[in-house]
Design goal:
Length: 100
């Protein structure tokens, strides 16, 4: 997988070195394939085709991570301040296997 080449072969300083254990690499691949499968199943009627989850997997993982952190921040807000009055935007959130 091209994504694996980009993420696991460079250390914090940007040096080319595979610093992941085999177990971590396999777990990452499983989760990445979940994203690929999930996004490849999305049909776009305007172009009469499905998304190509393999081409967008890096962006999809990053977007999912941003959503995860936003949700954690919201949970912290609720813990400190209570539930906000207007939560209709949360009605469409669903959980799936792609949460890292």
């Amino acid at each position: 997988m091209d994504l694996m080449t980009r993420v696991c072969q460079f250390d914090l300083k940007g040096d080319l070195i595979n610093w992941w254990s085999e177990d971590i690499r396999q777990r990452f691949e499983q989760k990445a394939y979940c994203f690929i499968s999930e996004y490849s199943s999305i049909y776009v009627p305007e172009v009469n085709m499905n998304l190509n989850g393999k081409n967008t997997v890096g962006e999809n993982i990053a977007d999912n991570g941003g959503m995860r952190e936003s949700y954690r921040a919201f949970q912290l807000y609720v813990k400190r301040h209570g539930e906000p009055n207007d939560c209709h935007m949360l009605a469409n959130i669903r959980s799936n296997c792609c949460i890292l």
